Amino acid sequence: MTLTNPPQAKIDIDSYEAGFLLGLYERMVQIREFEEGVKFLFLEGTMPGTIHQCQGQEACAVGVCTALEPTDWITSTFRGHGHALAKGLSVDEMLFELFGAATGCAGGKGGSMHMVNMDKGMIPSIAIVAGGVPVAAGMALAFKMQQTGQVAACFFGDGAIAEGAFHEGVNMAAIWDVPVVFICENNQYGASTHVSKVMRAATIAERLSSYGIDGRRIDGNDVIAVYEAARRAVDDCRAGRGPAFLELLTYRRTGHSRRDACHYQPKPEREQWLEYDPIVRLGQALVEAGHATTEELDAVRKQILTSFDDAVERAKTQPQPTLADLTTHVLA
Amino acid sequence: MTTTTTPKRVSIAESLRGAITEEMERDPKVFCLGEDIAVPGGWGGAFTVTLGLEERFPDRMINTPIAELGFFGVGVGAALMGMRPIVDVQYGDFLFLAMDQIVNNAAKMCYMSGGQCKVPLVMRAPVGATGRGSQHAQNLERYFIGVPGLKVVAVSTAYDARGILKAAVRDDNPVLIFEHKLLYGSKGARAESGAIDASSEIPEGDYVLPLDQAAIRREGNDVTIVGWLLTAHLAQQAADRLADEGVQAEVIDARSLSPIDFATICASVEKTGRLVIVEEGPKTGGVGAEIAAGVTERLGDRARASIRRVASADIPVPFTPVLENAYVPDVPRIMAAVLDMVKG
What we know:
The complex is a heterodimer.
Chain A: H1 18-43, H2 58-66, E1 73-75, H3 81-86, H4 91-98, H5 132-146, E2 152-157, H6 164-176, E3 180-186, E4 189-190, E5 193-194, H7 204-209, E6 215-219, H8 223-238, E7 244-249, H9 267-275, H10 278-288, H11 294-316
Parallel strand pairs in A: 1-2, 2-3, 3-7, 6-7
Antiparallel strand pairs in A: 4-5
Helix pairs in contact in A: 1-2, 1-10, 1-11, 2-8, 4-11, 5-6
Chain B: E1 9-10, H1 12-26, E2 30-34, H2 53-56, E3 61-63, H3 68-80, E4 84-88, H4 99-106, H5 109-112, E5 122-127, H6 141-144, E6 151-154, H7 158-170, E7 175-180, E8 200-201, E9 215-218, E10 223-227, H8 230-244, E11 249-253, E12 256-258, H9 262-272, E13 275-282, H10 287-299, E14 308-312, H11 321-327, H12 331-343
Parallel strand pairs in B: 2-3, 2-4, 4-5, 5-7, 6-7, 10-11, 10-13, 13-14
Antiparallel strand pairs in B: 1-8, 6-12, 9-11
Helix pairs in contact in B: 1-7, 3-4, 8-12, 9-10
C-alpha cells in the first residue's frame, strides 16, 4: 500500500491556529482513551457484549467530522465509537449504552454496534458491512429533494468494497448527483483478510472513478490532510457537485473485535504503522510549532482519562431497562 | 375485465395509481422509487400502477437502476430523513435481493435506536403464479410476517387497495403491501391472462383503512374460510358453490398479515367451529401455519373440528399450465376440504 505522501511525512499545520489544532488533538485523544478504557472494561468483564474498536484510525473520524456542520449527518459501522464521539455524542451516553443502561443513547437496545443520536446527526450505526452505503445515498437524496443544503457522510471500511450494497449505493448516488461523501477507512484488513486479497485494483479510489466519482487516496493518519480533503468534498457536495469519495489509508492498532490478537498483521508492518500513529504525529507537529509542550499535551490526556473514569463510575450505577421495555419501540 | 358503465368503478392498478397521486399531491414528502416507474413511453412499473405519474411529478418519480438492495436502502435513508418513499419491486421474488435493507434496517431502526428513529417506508410487491416459472411467481408473505417492526398487508380489492395504500403512506412504520398479479386489472400489453375482476366502486373523497384488520367478505355459520389476495376471491367462489350444497361458509379476507387480526378470525371460528385456511404457496412454513397456531392457542377446544389448510404442494412454482394449475389452490380443492370437514 503506497501513498503519494508517505504517512511518516510531517503534518503541515502552518495555516491553522493553535486552538483549532489542539481541538483536533483533544478529540483524537478522547477517542483513543475511550477505546482503551472500553477495551479494559470489556476484558475485565465489567461490560457486556462485544466491541470493534478504532485505535489508530482516530484522524479519519475527527478529520471528517470537523469538516461537517452540526446539521449534517453521518452513517457509521460496527466500528463506530470514534465516529460517534467525533460527531458530538457524549462519553456518558455512549458508555451508558455499552453498559446496557436505560439512559444509554439507544436506551440499552442498541449497544456497541448501533450508536445513535438523531439530535446530533447520527442514525444508528449499521453493523451489516456496506449496509449504510445505500442508506447514506438515500439520506442525501432526501436532502437534495428538499433542498436543505445538508450533506451525508458515509463511513465504511475496506471490507465493504466487495459488497453489492456498496456498488449499488455508490452508483445511485453518482447517477443522481446527491450530496454524500463516501469515506473508506482503508485500514487494510477486512477482519483478518488483507485488502490485496479481495481487490485487483491498486487503490479503492480508482474503483470509484469507474462510477464517475473522483476520489483520491489520502494519508488517513494525517488529520489535517483528512480534514482538508473532507472540507473540499463537503463543499463540493453542498455546491451540488456531489457525491464525493475519500480513501483514507490507515491502520488498525487493535484487533478486529474482542480478543483478536492480530496475528495476521506481519510484525514489521505493524511496527512501522505504529510509528505513523495519528495522535503522535499531530502531537509532534504541535510541539515543534510551539503550540504546546509535551507536558501540556500529557495534561490533555490526563484530563480526558479522569473524566472517562468518572463516566465509568456513573455508568456502573445507571438504571437498567425494566422488562416492561422489552416490547416497546418495536413500532413507531 | 369488462368495460364498466360507471366511471368510478376502477381496477386495483387504477386505484393504487389514484391513491399514490393523491398522497403525492397531499404531501410533498411522498415520492416513488423503483424500476421502470418513470420512463416516458414506458410501462408505469411492471403492472402499470405508476403509469403517467412522471408527467405529473417529474421530480418525485425516481427511476432506479436494477439494484433492489441498493434502492430499498435508499428508501430507508430517505425515510429516516423525513421523506415518505413508496418503493416497489417488479416481482415480489426480487424482495430477496433487498432482504438486508428491509429486515436489518427498515424493520429494526426504531427498536435498536430506543425509539428515536422512524422509517415511514411503503414497499409494494406483486406476487402470484402467472405462467412465469419459478422465479417470477412466489408468494413472499410468509418470509415477512415474522419480522418485528414491519407491517404486512395484502390487498385483494380496488377499494381496499386505495384505503390501505393511503394508510400505509401516512403510517410512521415500514409497511409492506402485497398485491396479486391476477387482481391488478392491468390493461394493454401488461394485461394478465387468467385475471380475476377485483375492481370496486370507489366513493368520492379521501379514506383510509386500518392496517390491522381482516374483512368479512361473506357471512355464514357452518365454516370459516380464510384467504387473502387471490385466495380471498377463490374462497368466495367456493362459498357461493357450497351454498348450493347447503353449506353456509363465512369468508374472511385476512388482509392484514402482520399483525394477523386474530380477533376477527377467532370470533368467526367460535361461531362456525371450523376453519379452512387457503394459501397460495407451499403449505410448510406458510402464513396459514401461523393463523392455525394462533387460532388454536386462542380457542383451544372451542373449535369443534380440526383446522385444515388448503395450500400449494411443497414445491417451487412450476411453469407448464397443467402443473401450475395444480400448484395454485382452486375452488374444487377448497370445497372438498370444507365438505370433508362439515360431513366428517
